[in-house]
Amino acid sequence: MKLFKFPLESLRTLRKQKERVAQQHYARALAACDAAGEQLHAADRELAAAWEQLVIEMSEGTAAAQILGRHTWCLTLETRRNELQAALDEARRAAETALQEMFVAVRDREALDRFCNRSRRAHARAAQREEQKNFDEMAVQMSGGSGLLQLTGHEI
After folding, report:
1. Structural domains in the chain (count)
2. Does 131 reside within a domain?
């Protein structure tokens, strides 16, 4: 009997490639989340330091124009921080989407792998039946050739 050849092997290869691409996309999305988180954390630190400096200047009796400038700077930093928070939220949504795409790719590849394995087992069973049939025929031929006629008591 022939060796097993899965007829959908090219599709299986494509599904494996699609799964690898989805894994890489998810990894990049996670890296983008980490980078956005780092930027947000840095903006939070900078904003906290600016507010603290404003409080210090107010307690020292600094000129109103300088305090107003510092307050405007704090508001600018707060706006930037909010933009970075929105970017982090978007990066998290993108990572979640990439994760779902990866799950779909894995599921599709695993389904095809299961089908391949079932086909391989069916091929092996058919090969085993064929081999057993050949052994049975050889046994009949080696036992004298008349086989069934001898069992019924009729000789030729």
Report:
1. 1
2. yes
